Amino acid sequence: MDRSRPLAVIPCHNEAVTLGRVVAAASRWADVLVVDDRSTDASADVARAAGAEVVPSDHPGYDGALTTGLAVAVAQGREAVVTLDADGEHDPDLIPAFTGALAAGVELVCGRRVRRNRLSEHILGLVGEGLMGVADPLCGMKGYSGALLTRWFASGLALRVNLAPMMLSRIAGQPFAQVTVTGTPRSDAPRFGRALRANLALLRSFAQARAEARRVLHQQRPGG
Asked: Is 0.85 surpassed by the pTM of this model?
């Protein structure tokens, strides 16, 4: 295994229709790990046929699948990790832009989508820009250095919709980069839905992730 080769981590729940194309494209730029979140369709078989390694999620849900994949990345000693969705909304051909920024020395690369589906994403875009300079905190396509992921796991923080490593890095003032993310819009409903309850849950996750990261960083300071 070449630890210097990037790893693309793709959480998956019943995405057999789009997953093959995503994996095939991502495989041009990285090793691909698909984390199967209890799919009942042929997602796992499609992913393997397209060249991905497939592992079952240790815990249900989006965060559970991503946490499983990121843990594999850390265990393998990967130096650069890119997370992206299985539905095609994140163009896999953007992976080199993420890994290039990581190779240039930042530990975090945040995607910035051209199109957003939910009210909460627009609200948190404004909040994230003002608080941390991050234009699209909820974008699932992110790039992480192995060192940042190791710090995040050591912190014990929950992933919080792929927000916690970003919060630890940005609140600490570490340099980061942003990449404009394009892709194919979903034809069905977004994974978290567009309803008021889903929007409130995403806003709450952002607030929790920020508060928890601030607490951990405060405790790590001398005399904290």
From this structure: yes
Burial of 84-104, coded b for 16+ CB within 10 Å and e otherwise, reads: bbbbbbbbbebbbbbbebbee
Domain boundaries, the chain: 7-220
Rg (the chain; Cα; Å): 16
Mean pLDDT of 171-181: 97
Locate 57 and state its tokens: 């999620």
How many Å apart are CA 157 and CA 57, to the nearest integer?
A: 18
| Res 222 pLDDT > 90 | no
Domain 7-220 superfamily per CATH: Spore Coat Polysaccharide Biosynthesis Protein SpsA; Chain A (3.90.550.10)
pLDDT at 224: 62
Residue 10's nearest CA partner among 21, 2, 131 is 21
Q: Is the pLDDT of residue 117 over 80?
A: no
